[in-house]
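Would you be willing to look carefully at the protein I have copied below?

:::
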Amino acid sequence: MAKIKVKQIGSPIRRTKDQRATLIGLGLNKMHKVSELEDTPEVRGMIRKLPHMVEVVEG
């Protein structure tokens, strides 16, 4: 299965609980942390939910 790298570019401070939970689900919790994940529709949906907080580094 293909892999994508996701980097956190936004802070979770003053964000809603569901946005924080989505970040944790992506394996992110600190600024500029990079997580390598399987390229699935579920992961893509989580990335689309937080376009202001994450970016796809490699994919």
Notes: The longest strand covers residues 3-8. The CA atoms of residues 34 and 56 lie 9 Å apart. The first helix runs from residue 17 to 25.
